[in-house]
Structure formats: structure tokens, C-alpha cells
């Protein structure tokens, strides 16, 4: 299992948080009709990619991107359920579980 420098893990965590914020803010922007959440979402998305670019300096691209995308997707889905009352069918929960399993496998690859 490859070791990651703490700074690269910090950049990866920051990229994940910023991606989640961008996704939630896009929902709050109501199709980019509300300017402040829309502009903040764009800034968060750009900052997330910037943080990810620093993370992949010390973490393999496949591992960093897989974790970034998977954790971001799972957290965004959970926030959609809790903040916006969205619902998932059992197949959606299975999909999230498979994504989580994939992220774990990537970490140990």
C-alpha cells in the first residue's frame, strides 16, 4: 500500500470538501438563476480542481481521482437526502455501496 505525505492527503481532503460544496451550491443556485450561490459554486469547483492538482503530485492519479470522485459522490448524495429531501431507491443505495467498495479497493491497490 503506497504511503501518502500528509500534505497531499490534506489537499485531497480539501478538494473533496470543495467539490461537495460546489455541488450543493449548484442546487441552491436554482439552475444558476441565483447569482451568489452560482458564482460561489464556480469558485468552489475551480478551487477543488486546483487542490486536486496539488494532491496528485504525491498520490497516484487513479487513486486520488477515484477517492475524490467516490467520496464526493457519496457525500453529495447524502446531503441531497438530508438537505433537499431527495430519495434513493434500493438500487441507488446499492450503487453507493459499490462506489464505497471501489474507493476502498483503490486505496489498497
From TrEMBL:
> Which UniProt keywords are present, listed alphabetically?
Cell inner membrane, Cell membrane, Membrane, Transmembrane, Transmembrane helix
Q: What is the protein's membrane topology class?
A: Multi-pass membrane protein
Could you list the residue ranges that cross the membrane? Answer: 6-26, 38-56, 62-84, 91-108
Assembly and interaction partners: Forms a complex with MdtJ.
Q: Name one Pfam family in it.
A: Multi_Drug_Res
Give the similarity note: Belongs to the drug/metabolite transporter (DMT) superfamily. Small multidrug resistance (SMR) (TC 2.A.7.1) family.
Q: Tell me the compartments it is located in.
A: Cell inner membrane; Cell membrane
Quote the gene name from the UniProt entry. mdtI
NCBIfam families linked to this entry: PRK10650.1
- Provide the protein name: Spermidine export protein MdtI
Taxonomic placement: Bacteria, Pseudomonadati, Pseudomonadota, Gammaproteobacteria, Lysobacterales
What superkingdom heads the lineage? Bacteria
Amino acid at each position: 500500500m503506497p504511503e501518502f505525505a500528509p500534505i497531499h492527503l490534506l489537499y485531497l481532503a480539501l478538494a473533496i470538501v470543495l467539490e461537495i460544496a460546489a455541488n450543493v451550491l449548484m442546487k441552491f443556485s436554482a439552475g444558476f438563476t441565483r447569482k451568489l450561490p452560482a458564482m460561489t459554486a464556480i469558485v468552489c469547483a475551480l478551487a477543488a480542481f486546483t487542490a486536486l492538482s496539488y494532491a496528485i503530485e504525491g498520490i497516484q492519479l487513479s487513486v486520488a481521482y477515484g477517492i475524490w470522485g467516490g467520496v464526493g459522490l457519496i457525500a453529495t448524495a447524502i446531503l441531497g437526502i438530508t438537505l433537499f429531501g431527495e430519495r434513493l431507491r434500493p438500487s441507488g443505495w446499492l450503487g453507493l455501496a459499490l462506489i464505497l467498495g471501489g474507493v476502498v479497493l483503490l486505496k489498497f491497490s
